[in-house]
Specification:
The protein is an alpha+beta fold. Helices cover 19% and strands 32% of the residues. It is flat and about 35 Å long.
């Protein structure tokens, strides 16, 4: 089983908390805090690209 190194939870307003994690195989994980057993998985590069796109405002219409 892969060992995931989870960051501290990031919480927005209310109970919208999620966690980002990585493993030694260069994979990245995003999960709702408390549901780390069922994360969304992709490469670290894909996670980096997603975060950069969100920071640039390209996902504001989804919020």
């Amino acid at each position: 089983m892969t060992s995931i190194d989870w960051e501290d939870p990031f919480c927005g307003e209310g109970n919208n908390c999620f966690r980002i994690g990585t493993d030694t195989d260069d994979n990245a994980y995003i999960a709702v805090a408390g549901q780390e057993g069922t994360p969304l998985t992709d490469t670290r590069e894909a996670l980096r690209h997603l975060i950069l796109e969100i920071k640039s405002g390209k996902a504001d219409h989804l919020l």
